Structures are given as C-alpha cells and as structure tokens.
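Lesson 9: reading folded outputs for more than one chain in a single document. The general rule is that every protein is listed as its sequence immediately followed by its structure tokens, and records are never interleaved. Here is the first one.
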Amino acid sequence: MLPVIALVGRPNVGKSTLFNRMTRTRDALVADFPGLTRDRKYGDGKLGDRPYIVIDTGGLSGDAEDLDGLMAQQAWQAIEEADLVFFLVDGREGLTASDAAVATALRRTGKPRLLVVNKTDGIDSDTASSEFYALGIGAPYPVSASHGRGVIALMAAAMLLLPAAEALAPQASDDTIRVAVVGRPNVGKSTLINRMLGEERVLAYDMPGTTRDSIFIPFERDAVAYTLIDTAGVRRRARVREAIEKFSVIKTLQAIDAAHVVILVLDAQLGVGEQDASLAGYIAEKGRALVVAINKWDGLESHARRQVNEQLERKLPFLGFAKTCFISALHGTGVGELFPQVNKAYAAAMRELPTPELTRILEQAVQEHQPPLVHGRRIKLRYAHQGGRNPPVIVIHGNQTERVPDTYRRYLVNAFRSAMKLTGTPVRIEFKTGSNPYKGRRNKLTPRQLQRKTRLMRHVKKKR
C-alpha cells in the first residue's frame, strides 16, 4: 500500500510538469479511467527505496463558484485520498488572491501539506518565495519543475511527512496469498468476495483496513491461507447491497501493489470497456499474477459469449499469460474454479528457476531460432539465471544484448513460459552485455611496451 501525494494549485503553475518530473516520464498517465478520473492523472514515483503514488489535478481558480465546480470536486477528491498535498504557486507571477483562497480552503482540510513555489529558475528564489509566507501554510520550497532544481530537497522533505509504505497495510504472514479483487463499479466485486468467503470450509473474520477503506480479510480454504483485499469499501455480508459500488482509483492501485495475485472482474453483459483495458494494463505493468473473472456469464446467448471472447482477444491481447474463468458470482457458478487458478498463478510468480534449466531452455530457443544479425555480427546469448520473483525475472547474458529487438524478446518470453509452465504470471527478461576483455587493452600497456610494439610493427612493415 503506497503513500499518496496530490498536486493542487491554480491553472498553469506547473503541476503537470512537476508530476512528470516526480514520475520520471514525459507523459506518466498510469491510470486514465474515463468518466471517473477525467481531471486527475495517477502515476508511480520513487525516491531511493521509497515508492509513492502521485496525483495531478485540474487547476483551482480560487473563486467561490469554482470551489464547488466539477474540476474542483476532482481536485478535492484527490486531496481527500492523499497522505500529503503539494500546493503549487507561481514564483514569477507572485502571490494572488486566488492562491490565498485556495490556501484557506486547504488549511481547513487539516491535511499535511508543503508549499511549492515553482518557476524560480533565472530569478532570486528567496525573494520570489518570501511573499508566500503570508499564506500561513508553512515555509515555501522554491523549485524549477521544468529543470529539476530544488525538486530533490522538496522530495526529501516529503519523505519525512509520508507514512512508510508497509505501515499502511495490516501485516500478513509471508506464506499467505494476498489476492486483490478489482474491477469497474457494479461488476459484482462485493458479491464475488462474499461468495468466496461464504463457501464451505472457509474461516473468515473482519479486520480494519487503512484510512482509505481498502479492507484486508484473512481466511482459509482447503488448508491454504489467503488474504482478500477488498477495494469496494463494503465488507460485512449483512450490509452488502448490489447498488453502485464505491470506486476509488487510489484504493485499486494500492490493492494491486499489495497483492500477490489479482482477480480482475469483468461484466460479461457490458463487455470489455476502456476502464477494463486501462486497469488490465496497469496490472500487467506492475507485473502481478492475474486471473480474469468474466462475471454474469450465465444467461448469455451464444452469440453474446462469442462477442465477449472476441473483445478479450482484441482489447486485452497483452493478457495472454492469464487464465480466464467464466462465473456467476450471484449464483456461485464457476467461482470454485478461481481458487485453483489463483494458486497456480501464485506458484508460478513465486517459483525458483534453476540456472542450468534456464540456460538449457535459452540454448534450445537460440538453436531453433537464431537472434538477428546487427551490422553483420550475430547477437550472442550465452546463459540465463533468475533475477527476481513476482513476477519472475530472467537475466540473459551475452554480447550486443542491447540490440535485441522486441519481437525476439517476446519469442524468448514465450519459450521460457512454455518450458517452465509459468501460467498466470507475466515474465520479465533483462539483458546484460558482458564487457569486452580486449577493450582498452592498448591503454593499459606501459610506455616501454608501447615502444617495443611500435618498433616491431615498423620492422614487419619494412620486411613487407
């Protein structure tokens, strides 16, 4: 469960520039859920070993009407979800009445905050920042988001105010399989969770979740310990209703990050939408093991079922590693099949891969399909070993590995997945190029050796 930083302020003060600087991308749009996050962008960032989620919001003008407008509601929703708020102002334009109005509203939230004076490049930062002390929300941090100046100091201060990532979630034992159930609103997540907990031979109890209502539910089935991570904010069976479920992007992203295995719930009657594809892409990008649950499958006509399968192949081709289960959470049909698939995906994600076996698979794959030529030289792949788990990371050593095309990388992924039976989890490949033992050798010769070599070459040349 990652801590959250929200960026707020007037339009054109540099929030998006700082967002991209914090996420180290030019366009770090991680989760764009149409209709729900129209005015908010979510991205992953990391400072040292401290990861976080950052939210970019629409501009707040500070006008009374604007504070109640749709864009403002999106910004205040981000503030509500955040552990820390960066309030950005424009150091070149100076303090405005709109800044003061936003600062007053921000103080009332009681949220931890840092005042960020942006666009201080080329001017005296102390002078530009001094007038913002009048806002009464703490000492300003002058930065230049476009050039990166002052951002490290800002983030260092932020790390002191953010909770540690592991402190946001209840501690679970290492041998417990953490399963996040995610999906769009009203696809049946709560019904599925209650059905999973209500099966025979299941022991379950409620455990308080985090301040953002992601709830951790430990339970046991067939002597296997699980922890379900419910992002719907609805838990006790007596209180569950099939109304539109509460949806929070932050809770979903945090649940995915905390899980070993994700169950992505799709609505068969609605088909695969843009939100589903965005969420599936984020899961794959995070490298989480995955089971796709197509809910409300019962009662569909055969042509409707064919359409759903076609949509899965067309819109989610990158989920070829995941198993798909067709279920009815309401009636329980197919729900029991989820547990074996979750177990298989978890086992594949956490599996230890022996170096001799990986190298043998690599040699066989190269023998069947050679890497391409680069400037007349063949790319050489020598051996492979495991570099990580959840997801499995396979490190391949060789020459010119930086020139391996994506098509050949995918070929190797499929070869390792098939040979090692890594079902239900993404597989990552990293290439390492060995150093050339002859590179720079001339520079390592002593002056006397260089003289001898020069005389020898002259002698050979005269004989010719």
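And here is the second record, again sequence then tokens.
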Amino acid sequence: MGVRTERGRITLTVAQAGIMAALVAVATFAVQVPIPATKGYLNFGDIMIFASALIFGPIVGGFAGGVGSALSDVAGGYASTYAPFTLIIKGAEGIIAGLIAKRGSNKRNVLAVAVAGAEMVSGYFLAEFFGLSLGWAAATEVPFNILQIVAGGAIGIPISIVILKRLPETWIRQSQAEEVGTA
C-alpha cells in the first residue's frame, strides 16, 4: 500500500506527527525526577524524540519533540514556566536530529543525537539562566540534560533501526525518500 498523492502524504505525516507527539508526551511524563535548584525535571522523552526524528524526519521529529514535550510540561504543572521554552527547544531538537540523520547511517544518527543534544542542553541552560532568571543555578541541570541525551541516543537509535527495517518505505521519511528518488 503506497501513499501516491500529495494529500495522502500530508495525511500520513499529520498522523505520524500526532502519534509520535503522544508517545513523546507519555515518555516524558512517565518518569519525572524533580531537580529542586531549577524546579525542572529529569525525564526520558528524548528517547521518543530521537526515534521520531530518525524514523520520520525533521517535520515529524520537530512536531513530536516540541508539542509532545510541551504537553507533558502542561500536564505536569510546568505550563507557565517551562512549556513555552520546551516547545521551542525540544521542537528544534527534533528538527535538527531529523535533518542531520538522513537514512541508514549509524554515524549520522550518532552525530544527529550529539548536535541536537547540544542544542537542547544549551537551550535549557540559556532559558533558565536568562528567561527564568535562575542565574548559575541553571548549571545544576546540565548534567541531567546530558543524561537525557545519552539515554535518548542509546535507546532511540536502536529503536529507530528496528522500526525502519519493518515499516513500508512509503511510511517513512517521505521528504527524504523523495530527495533520493525512492518514493
């Protein structure tokens, strides 16, 4: 079963983005370890952000990362402090990972996680330092954010490899498949 029309591709992308945003929200909300100095929390939503971006590309990865993580912030009581920053920072994380990864290369996947992870860690540090006026207390969250990235890559990359082998080509990374002429 292929997605042959532009409308079909758009519909598929919207469905993928919605499902992956829900999975990011659940993964982020399921484990929340509070970080008292910043009133933030350690979570493992990055696993699903990276899986989303590496499987479906930057559009789905960006939407799932931003919206899914921000929804978790709202549900967890962080709506007024972290949700606006999260929408942008985690959305950019998914976009960056999806743009860098391309298909198939483990080296590119690791690079994608590293660069997107650096954006996430620095984004939250700057948001907390300047946006939330936490000053140097923002540095206390950096090791926890690095842990999220390491876990996200260590689990998200293998998940994406397994899923990419099992999904029909027409369901994955439509824009990138079209770039290389496989769609």
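What the second record shows: Helices lie at 6-30, 46-56, 58-75, 83-101, 106-131, 142-166, 174-179.
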